From TrEMBL:
Protein name in the entry: Phosphotransferase family protein
Pfam families (alphabetical): APH
PANTHER family membership: AMINOGLYCOSIDE PHOSPHOTRANSFERASE DOMAIN-CONTAINING PROTEIN-RELATED (PTHR21310:SF40), AMINOGLYCOSIDE PHOSPHOTRANSFERASE-RELATED-RELATED (PTHR21310)
Domain Aminoglycoside phosphotransferase, residue spans: 8-215
Length: 254
């Protein structure tokens, strides 16, 4: 019998979940079984390219690798051409125009409460200069308005969108999918890659609200910083969340 061994690669690992790669299979292990349930159902409902689910055995979800490469990496210059970013925008619009998933998303009041809590932590621990936190909190207010819910990915980082030959081959990591603000997805995709916002919107449609997207850049960066620090990531790495917050200091208030 021909027996071949394959290396096990740790893609990400922290106290909440871990993802391993074995050959062309990804094994996602999550302490919250609802995440795997949402991810599998969202991929089945989404009208965009998603990974194939190979099997599920809680707490493990096994999915196949998608072809291509990530459109970009946070903190690194993007080498993807404008047409790839436009294709990503078109795919996101297709998702946002799809029927809503049968589970709710986050409530506006919960987003506001969490943001205020995270800003208090940043100020209380001296993680960033107070003026950076307060200015971005003011900017973030622009995202805290009622929205018409859409089917959103919920964690549409640039590393989660795969491309090949200028087209989208797969969108991965759907555990945060829900009903939500479509501008949030556009903001997360372009966080740290703001120079490609207009390319994305060329594919998505010009009815997107650029000021709200910029407000979500501030909100997301403020809200995610403590989690990143506590789980071994560095939001102060070049091009990452702290740089996004500092860059907002040059923007006029809406």
């Amino acid at each position: 019998m021909d027996q071949r061994t394959q290396d096990v690669q740790i893609v990400v690992a922290h106290s909440q979940r871990a993802t391993l790669r074995v050959g062309e299979t990804f094994l996602k292990i999550d302490g919250d079984p609802e995440h795997a349930e949402v991810e599998a159902e969202a991929m089945a409902l989404a009208p965009v390219p998603t990974p194939l689910v190979l099997w599920r055995e809680p707490p493990v979800l096994a999915i196949a690798a998608v072809p291509g490469r990530a459109i970009a990496t946070l903190g690194e210059p993007s080498t993807s051409p404008p047409e790839a970013w436009r294709a990503a925008g078109t795919a996101i619009r297709t998702l946002h125009d799809a029927p809503l998933p049968p589970w709710p998303g986050r409530r506006l009041e919960d987003v506001r409460a969490e943001l205020d809590q995270e800003c208090a932590w940043l100020l209380g621990n001296g993680v960033l200069p107070p003026e950076v936190v307060r200015r971005n909190r003011d900017i973030a207010e622009g995202a805290l308005r009622p929205w018409t819910p859409a089917f959103i990915h919920g964690d549409l980082q640039c590393a989660h969108v795969f491309i090949e030959d200028g087209g989208v081959t797969g969108i991965i990591d759907w555990s945060e999918a829900a009903c939500g603000d479509p501008m949030f997805d556009l903001a997360i995709l372009t966080l740290g890659h703001e120079e490609h916002l207009e390319d994305v919107l060329a594919g998505y449609g010009q009815d997107a609200d650029r000021e709200v997207i910029r407000a979500w850049w501030s909100l997301r960066s403020l809200q995610a910083s403590r989690w990143l620090i506590e789980h071994g990531f560095d939001p102060d790495a070049p091009g990452c969340e702290f740089d996004v917050l500092r860059a907002r200091m040059r923007d006029p208030l809406p």
